[in-house]
């Protein structure tokens, strides 16, 4: 009896293998398609689960996968794949099954896990109470002002808003209060953006932008702070006239405008130093966690920065005028990565500030 049961089981298994295809679940809940004895997975399911963008040219039968800086292309019916321009081979060719593209099971380890590894920023743990409490995130441009335009029509204002909203969500998860100068596609003047930051009594102001240049080959990531030349008496006197000075356990013995201007000049100089430190943190995290060219940090006389009464930086996330960077900035997964990088730079800066405050007590 046991012999008959064993033979019957072998017969059933053989029928499943050689009849064309069977479907079984994997440990990751991906359906496995057994085609002529080879295990295949749905390409759509893999890409959706890992946040990978893919396009299929039905005429050329060429498929392209992309996420971040990586690109993989291959043809249906072929085992040759191009990984960032370099040739690799699969154990079995890519195939079609019931109208969908399927890839051999080894494709998951070789390509999905090997090339498009999960992006995880290290060190996202901040147990110490941060000195920063409130941050204003400014999405540059908006409404009637599209900002820079990419070669294929990508609008800077859309990129800025998406990164700003992603950044705000990350910082809120870390317990910070975040104010967005705009959360929709609307126009806000530069003085209006500055007023939002100053009226919010924020600890930091971060303006998100995307760059552009007539030189199409120019690319890279950079962060701006208020140039030293902006810390002049005119700026200090402007603040002294319009903003009351409120410093804990400190009262001015004189109402002298000159004294107030001196104090405001000291505040602006201190803010500039912290802005430089923040810019360096953001650039360092970007350099450590991406393949982007780091242009560096620069001083500039941007109105949206010099009007802020707190440490302020302007982040240029990439050049929409550059073909490759426009492609990256169009990708939501990459924009999430940029937001994560800026967030970690901010939180690293906050952690250092908190540590220094504790040491000075």
Describe this structure in words.
With about 350 residues, the protein is of the alpha+beta class. It has 2 domains: about 20-115, Copper amine oxidase-like, N-terminal domain (Copper Amine Oxidase, Chain A, domain 1), CATH 3.30.457; about 135-360, Aminopeptidase, CATH 3.40.630. The chain contains 10 helices and 16 strands. It has helices spanning about 1-20, 45-50, 105-115, 155-175, 190-200, 235-240, 255-290, 305, 325-330, 330-360, and strands at about 25, 30-35, 40, 55, 60-65, 70-75, 80-85, 85-90, 95, 100-105, 135-140, 175-180, 205-210, 220-225, 295-300, 310-320. Strands 12-11-13-16-14-15 form a 6-stranded mixed β-sheet, sandwiched between helices. Strands 1-2-3-10-9 form a 5-stranded antiparallel β-sheet. β7 (about 80-85) and β8 form a beta hairpin. The longest helix is centred in the C-terminal third of the chain and has 33 residues, at about 255-290. It is elongated and about 70 Å long.
What portion of residues belong to β-strands? Answer: 15-25%
- Flag low-confidence runs: 1-27, 239-268, 355-361
Q: What is the CATH topology assignment of the largest domain?
A: Aminopeptidase
State Rg: 27 Å
What is the terminal separation in angstroms? 84 Å
Into how many domains do the coordinates divide?
2
Architecture of the largest domain, CATH level 2? 3-Layer(aba) Sandwich
The largest beta-sheet arranges its strands as 12-11-13-16-14-15
């Amino acid at each position: 009896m046991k012999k008959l049961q064993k033979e019957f089981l072998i017969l059933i298994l053989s029928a499943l293998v050689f009849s064309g295809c069977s479907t079984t679940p994997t440990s990751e809940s991906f359906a496995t398609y057994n085609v002529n004895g080879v295990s295949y997975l749905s390409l759509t399911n893999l890409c959706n689960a890992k946040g990978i963008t893919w396009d299929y040219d039905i005429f050329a039968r060429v498929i392209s996968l992309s996420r971040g800086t990586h690109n993989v292309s291959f043809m249906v019916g072929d085992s040759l794949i191009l990984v960032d321009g370099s040739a690799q081979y699969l154990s079995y060719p890519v195939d079609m099954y019931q109208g969908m593209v399927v890839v051999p099971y080894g494709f998951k380890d070789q390509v999905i896990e090997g090339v498009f590894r999960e992006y995880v920023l290290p060190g996202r743990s901040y147990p110490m109470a941060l000195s920063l409490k409130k941050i204003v995130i400014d999405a540059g441009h908006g409404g009637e002002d599209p900002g820079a335009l990419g070669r294929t029509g990508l609008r800077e204002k859309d990129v800025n808003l998406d990164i700003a909203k992603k950044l705000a969500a990350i910082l809120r998860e870390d317990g910070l209060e975040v104010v967005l100068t705009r959360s929709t596609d609307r126009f806000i003047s530069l003085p209006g953006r500055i007023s939002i930051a100053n009226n919010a009594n924020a600890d930091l102001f971060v303006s998100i932008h995307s760059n552009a240049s007539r030189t199409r080959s120019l690319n890279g990531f950079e962060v701006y702070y208020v140039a030293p030349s902006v810390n002049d008496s005119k700026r200090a006197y402007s603040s002294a006239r319009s903003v009351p000075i409120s410093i804990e356990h400190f009262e001015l013995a004189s109402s002298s405008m000159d004294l107030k201007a001196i104090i405001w000049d000291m505040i602006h100089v201190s803010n500039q130093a912290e802005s430089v430190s923040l810019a360096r943190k953001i650039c360092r995290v970007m350099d450590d966690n991406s393949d982007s060219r780091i242009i560096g940090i620069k001083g500039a006389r941007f109105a949206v920065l010099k009007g802020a009464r707190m440490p302020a930086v302007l982040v240029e996330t990439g050049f929409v005028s550059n073909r490759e960077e426009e492609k990256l900035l169009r990708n939501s997964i990459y924009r999430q990565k940029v937001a994560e990088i800026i967030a970690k730079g901010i939180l690293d800066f906050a952690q250092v500030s908190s540590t220094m405050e504790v040491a000075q007590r």
